């Protein structure tokens, strides 16, 4: 009987306790969230199949494509202002780099609205962001 109890503690309870204690630390530090909203000045409604795409990108290198740190697609986008949350790994944010939010609204692979200026952001600051889009040329 004592052998069975010792076996239970060694092979059952101890690994369970170690697993429970280790997992929250990993998942809690693994992701950070950047929140905000997207809007535009035109007084028109979006079609019901509009898709909002927002990306957090490292735009430090002028002669190279931006590196996407996190992204979010909202389908259907709904109407403005459209709220968003982007999850990202804080370890991917390096000191001395420049980060920006990029946003666009697309309908049937056709660009409707786009952010035409750089929306620079400090992803680790945690302040909500507002991105104002412009209507794309037809």
Give a structural overview.
With 138 residues, the protein is α+β, with helices and mostly antiparallel strands. Helix content is 21%, strand content 40%. It contains 1 helix and 8 strands; from the N terminus they run αββββββββ. Strands 1, 2, 3, 4, 5, 6, 7 and 8 form an 8-stranded mixed sheet that branches. The chain is extended and about 80 Å long. The chain starts with a helix and ends with a strand. About 5% of the residues have low confidence.
Total number of β-strand segments?
8
Helix count equals 1
Task: Report the major sheet.
Answer: 8 strands, mixed
Q: How would you name the oligomeric state of the polypeptide chains in this document?
A: single chain
Shape: extended
End-to-end CA span: 80 Å
Task: Reconstruct the topology from this structure.
Blueprint: H1 2-30, E1 32-40, E2 51-58, E3 67-74, E4 82-88, E5 99-107, E6 110-114, E7 119-120, E8 129-135
Parallel strand pairs: 1-8
Antiparallel strand pairs: 1-4, 2-3, 2-5, 5-6, 5-7, 6-8
């Amino acid at each position: 009987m004592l052998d069975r109890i010792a076996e239970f503690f060694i092979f059952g309870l101890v690994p369970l306790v170690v697993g429970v204690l280790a997992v929250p630390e990993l998942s809690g530090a693994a992701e950070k969230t950047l929140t905000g909203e997207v809007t535009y000045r035109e007084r028109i409604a979006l079609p019901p199949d509009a898709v909002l795409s927002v990306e957090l990108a490292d735009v430090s290198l002028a002669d190279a494509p931006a590196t996407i740190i996190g992204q979010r697609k909202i389908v259907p986008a709904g109407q403005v202002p459209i709220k968003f949350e982007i999850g990202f790994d804080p370890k991917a944010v390096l000191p001395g780099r420049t980060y920006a939010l990029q946003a666009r609204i697309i309908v049937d692979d056709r660009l409707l609205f786009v952010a035409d200026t750089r929306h620079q952001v400090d992803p680790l600051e945690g302040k909500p962001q507002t991105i104002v889009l412009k209507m794309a040329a037809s």
